[in-house]
Amino acid sequence: xxxxxxxxxxxxxxxxxxxxxxxxxxxxxxxxxxxxxxxxxxxxxxxxxxxxxxxxxxxxxxxxxxxxxxxxxxxxxxxxxxxxxxxxxxxxxxxxxxxxxxxxxxxxxxxxxxxxxxxxxxxxxxxxxxxxxxxxxxxxxxxxxxxxxxxxxxxxxxxxxxxxxxxxxxxxxxxxxxxxxxxxxxxxxxxxxxxxxxxxxxxxxxxxxxxxxxxxxxxxxxxxxxxxxxxxxxxxxxxxxxxxxxxxxxxxxxxxxxxxxxxxxxxxxxxxxxxxxxxxxxxxxxxxxxxxxxxxxxxxxx
Length: 302
Prior knowledge:
The structure is a single chain. The chain has one domain (13-238): Metallo-beta-lactamase, Chain A (4-Layer Sandwich), CATH 3.60.15. 34% of the residues lie in helices and 20% in strands. The chain starts with 12 loop residues before the first helix and ends with a helix. Helix 6 packs antiparallel against helix 7 (239-262) and helix 7 (239-262) packs across helix 8. By secondary structure, the protein is α/β, with parallel strands linked by helices. A seven-stranded mixed sheet has the order 1-2-3-4-5-6-7. The chain has a five-stranded mixed sheet with strand order 8-9-10-11-12, with no helix packed on it. InterPro entries: Metallo-B-lactamas, NDM-1-like, RibonucZ/Hydroxyglut_hydro. Its EC number is 3.5.2.6.
């Protein structure tokens, strides 16, 4: 893996920056919410929620953006929130918007922090993710994007202390991806969850996800009892909303699927498992039936 500094097109940046909505949750701490829709040329792969922590020794970005141009659009928003340079970027997982913007930030002088599990996932899926992004956002929007190696790789936990700000990063995956991590600020009781939590949008259970351990990861969140919770998708929220939109969705799907399997049901009929209580979530029609089949495949052998 290598770093790449490349030319990028300026035309998408203003438009993409408008798709990123900052929300201050505590002094010096922001959620930056991207759209719930699929990756496209307008959002530059930034269809997720990111985070910013301003400290006395530089800013810390929670997830870098989904492409070089996506990272630059994210930077434009960051510059409206703080004059501090971004000193560190934390990758909370394995999806493209959690790491493929790393190269842009490294070119600005930031150090990237990633769990070993997430880094292995990056290496495993980089080619597939780049191919998919080329299709979804287009070659022009993808210009400059290249997989890059992190500067700091940790096994289970990593702590940053910048001035009076303590930031604890802890691996809790596999959940949505094998290397999902939480970012915890104990002084303000603020938690960035990455893709362990989806709010207002149905989560995605993928072939590389682990729906059983995902609930264990969520229990780690509950044990922290955060005051402020910034999900991987959706606006900043509270624990009760995260429980409703993520934990309860997964619990319902797994409970209903266990009954379906025990009754002799097959994968074809698995899509009919009742998830209607969660039809209020964005992207429900696009993802719920696919989630059901994936969870069936996982639970068939549990």
